[in-house]
């Protein structure tokens, strides 16, 4: 039990303790841990000697701390838990707590490489139907390997960043030539992202068993997608400008250690995977909510994903590719089997053919200028608690003319 | 004329002055400029006050210097030229010159995002024929936009780094299921890479006219490719593990300013491109040589590429995506029309069907363990000089078992 005045069901209790970066209001950038509605100033905490992590907590991004590896992650987490539960520390900790409302969250880590997978069977099937009508929706490779691609790391932005509607080329099938202009099919993708901590060596693949040693924590991801740009550009080398304008992530990285009680069996796979992808079939019971201008329009269940994050890490490095602190790999759009469980609007409205009605009566097909989309999520914590994720919120600004 | 004892036709004369990073032998990392067979220690040069660039020349990568922007790039280049041509500086400069043979080149910049284009009409047509036999080789979008995708920035390595043969999944068309093992079709891609200097703002596209302000210089790129892995994985999201194991770059970044005399008209485009891609049709007469274990097997001409680097930059940012100092975008495989001008071995040997014979009589289809592949290049410099590029050399080590 924490000595802070926190409700037992607060999703940001001591059982969670996610890490992030914030601007306290003076334009600087500091690391912090979120506890309830407050932020513990980790830079100050280390400076006064209450925690020790080789000065990495005084950096402006989590990357140096991530690079220390699992023994340090555990030691610092244990220490923070002690400081926030033993009342003997109350008087020294309290001055280091800032109200969340008075700080501005920053991107918590410098993104190394950003990889986006495609691991929901339902999403891959739906997109196959929408992008390649008349053809077999699931390609022959899909059940043999976690399909993925590299996204743009430099345009990963923190929750709260406004998103300018992208322009680009699009060509409807019945047009003779492409035109250039603002995307007419701006979409979201609700995903779960895994933040790599420890570095691996070039030429040395990791295995599915290495997941816990190399992955530090989890963020929510909204991989904004311009479907009209994507449809015209993506053959043969994959999505590019249809995705690269922005990817929003939550401001608080939930440590893997906070998700031990959220582990659930992942779906069995058929056909059997190749040995390098064999794993313990551990999924995470992360329940996402997609909120479109105030209306909950979908509740994608992460637990049902076909490919697990451990398999994704093993696949990502199977060719000897190395990982670095700050690498981010996302699950791909989380879509459950039901229409109100899908993680993208192209699925929700079936390519725009079946508009959704918001709570106030407005209808929507794709995201309009001024719309705000928010992703939130929770997962089971220890002893009946709930682990909260920071929200991912983004508002759409009109295209640059 | 430099006061150094350099041949007039030295491709690394004062007309070139490429930048890089090196280890002088003590495990440290310093910036330098190459002049002939020597390296000018830029960190020391700035420390003693002979050049001034806000201490960025004392960093361990070029990124802080790149971020200063074109006015500083020009000022520092002008100053280096002065120091190396005015004999009054000889006695102060000479102690700061190290023999190239006594230092170890390092990756010159930390790679932000790595984008690989696909801008050779011949290469795209050849690959279309090889990967999608029986279908129209060039997809409908190819002449309307420079097709590209994001590669893995964290596995960009400097010339001289050994390349471990990647393993992965591959499935021949007649097999029932994929197998996992070392790639049997390890290939190269000879490319020209553009190093972004100045940062742009998210949401604000650049134009083709911004090329000279934002791009600092040029490296040679070997985008190693495992064709069997690529063929099985690349649908629908593009190349991933078939490419992400390693990309080699030359150690010396040739400033755009050194290539003014290499500018040549780029091929005219038909159909006309959309207005945001209209440019001055400026190509660069960079002549690449591909050397396979000592035998020159190809001479790809960069000047013939359909899409120019100015168009690539405008396209890359057309959706509002920002660029950062250290971003690298490569041309895609440079293939001329003739068989001895192609930039990949899958083209040279037509998918392995037509082996090449090396000078010593050995034959090759794809790259074998122990093989060394070297790319070199030259371009016309001012007053009849030649601009040399640093080589890109890589030797293949056997797969990890």
UniProtKB/TrEMBL annotation, chains A, B:
Its cofactor is Ca(2+); Mg(2+). Pathway: Amino-acid degradation; L-phenylalanine degradation; acetoacetate and fumarate from L-phenylalanine: step 6/6. Ca(2+) binds at residues 116, 189, 191, 223. It comes from the Bacteria. GO terms for molecular function: fumarylacetoacetase activity; metal ion binding. Signal peptide: none annotated. Gene3D superfamilies: Fumarylacetoacetase, N-terminal domain, Fumarylacetoacetase-like, C-terminal domain. PANTHER family: FUMARYLACETOACETASE. This is fumarylacetoacetase.
């Amino acid at each position: 039990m924490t000595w802070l005045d926190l409700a037992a069901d607060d999703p940001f209790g001591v059982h969670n303790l996610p890490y992030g970066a914030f601007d306290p209001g003076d334009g600087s950038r500091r690391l912090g841990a979120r506890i309830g509605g407050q932020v513990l100033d980790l830079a100050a905490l280390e400076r006064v000697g209450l925690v020790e992590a080789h000065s990495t907590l005084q950096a402006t991004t989590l990357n140096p701390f991530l690079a220390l590896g699992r023994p340090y992650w555990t030691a610092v987490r244990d220490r923070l838990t002690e400081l926030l539960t033993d009342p003997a520390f109350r008087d020294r900790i309290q001055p280091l707590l800032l109200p969340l409302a008075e700080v501005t969250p920053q991107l918590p880590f410098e993104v190394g490489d950003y990889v986006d997978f495609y691991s929901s069977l339902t999403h891959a099937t739906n997109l196959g139907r929408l992008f390649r009508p008349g053809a077999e929706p699931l390609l022959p490779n899909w059940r043999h390997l976690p399909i993925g691609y590299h996204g743009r790391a430099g345009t990963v932005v923190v929750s709260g960043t406004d998103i300018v509607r992208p322009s680009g080329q699009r060509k409807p099938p019945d047009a003779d030539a492409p035109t250039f202009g603002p995307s007419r099919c701006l979409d979201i993708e609700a995903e779960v992202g895994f933040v790599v901590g420890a570095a691996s060596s070039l030429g040395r693949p990791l295995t599915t068993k290495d997941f816990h040693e190399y992955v530090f924590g989890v963020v929510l991801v909204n991989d904004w997608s311009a479907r009209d740009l994507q449809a015209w550009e993506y053959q043969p080398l994959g999505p590019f400008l249809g995705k690269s304008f922005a990817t929003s992530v939550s401001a608080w990285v939930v440590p893997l250690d906070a998700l031990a009680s959220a582990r659930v069996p992942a779906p069995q796979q058929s056909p059997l995977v190749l040995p390098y992808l064999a794993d313990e079939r551990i999924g995470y019971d992360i329940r996402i909510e997609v909120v479109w201008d105030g209306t909950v329009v979908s509740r994608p269940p992460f637990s049902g994903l076909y490919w697990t994050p451990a398999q994704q890490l093993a696949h990502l490095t199977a060719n000897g590719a190395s990982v670095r602190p700050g690498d981010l790999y996302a699950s791909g759009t989380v879509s459950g089997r039901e229409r109100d469980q899908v993680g993208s609007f192209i699925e929700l409205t079936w390519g725009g053919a079946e508009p959704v009605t918001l709570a106030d009566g407005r209808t929507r097909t794709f995201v309009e200028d001024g719309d705000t989309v928010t992703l939130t999520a929770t997962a089971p914590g220890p002893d009946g608690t709930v682990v909260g994720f920071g929200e991912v919120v983004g508002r759409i600004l009109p295209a640059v003319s």
